[in-house]
Amino acid sequence: MKNECYIVRDLLPSYIDQLCSDESKVFIEQHMSQCDSCSRVLQHMRTEFDDVEQVELPMRIEQKKPFEKVARFLTAQGNFTKFLKASFWLSLFITIILLVFSFNELAIWQEDQQEAQRVEQQQQDIMAKAFTALSAQDRPNETALQTIFEQYQEQLQHIAIFSTEDIEDTSTSQEGPTTVFPIDYERASLVLGEGGEITESIVPNEYDIGTMAMANNGWVVQFEYKQSYLETVEAAHQIKYYSPSAWTLFSMPIVLSIISLFIFITWRYQKQIMRPMRAQVD
Q1: Mean pLDDT of 143-153
Q2: Between 36-135 and 22-32, two packed helices, what is the crossing angle to 10 degrees?
Q3: Quick one: which of 183, 180, 242 has its CA closest to 209?
Q4: DSSP 3-state assignment of 21?
Q5: How far apart are the C-alpha atoms of 44 and 38, rounded to whole Å?
């Protein structure tokens, strides 16, 4: 019996941890039913095991707390990295769309600028030709001026010539054509239209953008656009004075490109600093 007690007591730790075989378990339990001494030893060992577990469990929990904090920190940093990655690709996608839109707008902007330059060049050409005709004689050369009018008759309503001696106050420029409120045509030395010289009274167009004038030392040339051409003149005027610059069209893509670059750098830096931390935890 004593030999059995020694064997059973050697097996008790495995029996308590449920690591012994089924045959050993049956053998131990049969012995316990007949041996009070071994039963007391088993009870004592179980009590000690429970006490150790009660002491070790809080210690294990306390030991796990720092690792749980690190795990939560790594999870949060991982989510932040994913957020940076998604933000970068979204920002890059929007930047590309805005770039395509800006290039399309740039093409339209260039066409508008060319049209505005064409209208402005046309105004300068009319004035240059008119003053060339006026410089040859002391009085307006009706034939030469009529030829100029007919050359631009699709755009012009009429063209008038004034002597500076008959104009008391005018805002016309000697440097180039300028928009003005029409000078009273009754003061004109000559007014030409589709049928030649106009002698009847003319009601001026109150839309000042539709009237251009320019002066030199002796003459003032004034012409009015046809009603059908005023929309083109108005558009050219708006483009010349109020159109945004080419860089303005690309302001949003540029800003988003800078933001995308900043997000990309932050994302790569975040991945770089996270790699050794994960390696240490693993």
Answers
A1: 93
A2: 140
A3: 180
A4: coil
A5: 10
